[in-house]
Amino acid sequence: ESACTAYLGNMLRVVRLRCPAVRGVRAMATNPYPPPPPGRGATADLCDIHIKEPVDTIVEGSGVQIMQSIFRDYGKRTRFSGQVSTVKCHESNPRVRAALEEEGQGRVLVVDAGGSQRCAVLGDNLAAMGARNGWAGVVVNGCIRDSEDIAGMEIGVKALNTHPLKSSKRDPGLRDVPVVVAGTLVTPGDWLYADRDGILVAPYELSMDGDK
């Protein structure tokens, strides 16, 4: 009986080492924060409900803004949403790390890196930290790296492109200030909705029945 028990114990250890799903379950068990809720609605449906004006008067007519379609999806979650926190930086990411170290509470971090494509301001370590701490997603007006690893993480990540070089730590940047990203003014406390079709930003939470 003891030999059988030892054999089963060894087999379980092998499965844990080789099976990503089992490792993921163990990681979830040690995650101090619950995963963020799924995205609240498809951006196309939200546009149909909340935008009643012609395209050239969208901002004035509804308060809902649509970002220019310049982002690519990199995280496992392609649909995500939440209240916005912002970082403004230039080729430096200390504020990005500081933000993702916080409890996310289902928020979305918008990083305005000035559109720089000379280095990455987010990598696998920071993305994993954001997923562990309950951030719904990160939108980067700039580049990320470690994209193959980030593709398997339970977090939404959108960015302009990838770049293998990490950023510097020279400029700490600014936290929770208004930023302009992809032609859209994003203010801390706004609500952001993202999926494969695009990104919406609104000053209030959008519902699927047309009510604010």
UniProtKB/TrEMBL annotation:
<dbReference type="GO" id="GO:0046872">
    <property type="term" value="F:metal ion binding"/>
</dbReference>
<comment type="function">
    <text>Catalyzes the aldol cleavage of 4-hydroxy-4-methyl-2-oxoglutarate (HMG) into 2 molecules of pyruvate. Also contains a secondary oxaloacetate (OAA) decarboxylase activity due to the common pyruvate enolate transition state formed following C-C bond cleavage in the retro-aldol and decarboxylation reactions.</text>
</comment>
<dbReference type="InterPro" id="IPR005493">
    <property type="entry name" value="RraA/RraA-like"/>
</dbReference>
<dbReference type="GO" id="GO:0008428">
    <property type="term" value="F:ribonuclease inhibitor activity"/>
</dbReference>
<dbReference type="InterPro" id="IPR036704">
    <property type="entry name" value="RraA/RraA-like_sf"/>
</dbReference>
<keyword id="KW-0460">Magnesium</keyword>
<keyword id="KW-0456">Lyase</keyword>
<feature type="binding site">
    <location>
        <position position="146"/>
    </location>
    <ligand>
        <name>Mg(2+)</name>
    </ligand>
</feature>
<dbReference type="GO" id="GO:0051252">
    <property type="term" value="P:regulation of RNA metabolic process"/>
</dbReference>
<comment type="subunit">
    <text>Homotrimer.</text>
</comment>
<feature type="binding site">
    <location>
        <begin position="123"/>
        <end position="126"/>
    </location>
    <ligand>
        <name>substrate</name>
    </ligand>
</feature>
<dbReference type="Pfam" id="PF03737">
    <property type="entry name" value="RraA-like"/>
</dbReference>
<keyword id="KW-0479">Metal-binding</keyword>
<protein>
    <recommendedName>
        <fullName>4-hydroxy-4-methyl-2-oxoglutarate aldolase</fullName>
        <ecNumber>4.1.1.112</ecNumber>
        <ecNumber>4.1.3.17</ecNumber>
    </recommendedName>
</protein>
<feature type="binding site">
    <location>
        <position position="145"/>
    </location>
    <ligand>
        <name>substrate</name>
    </ligand>
</feature>
<dbReference type="GO" id="GO:0047443">
    <property type="term" value="F:4-hydroxy-4-methyl-2-oxoglutarate aldolase activity"/>
</dbReference>
<dbReference type="GO" id="GO:0008948">
    <property type="term" value="F:oxaloacetate decarboxylase activity"/>
</dbReference>
<comment type="similarity">
    <text>Belongs to the class II aldolase/RraA-like family.</text>
</comment>
<dbReference type="InterPro" id="IPR010203">
    <property type="entry name" value="RraA"/>
</dbReference>
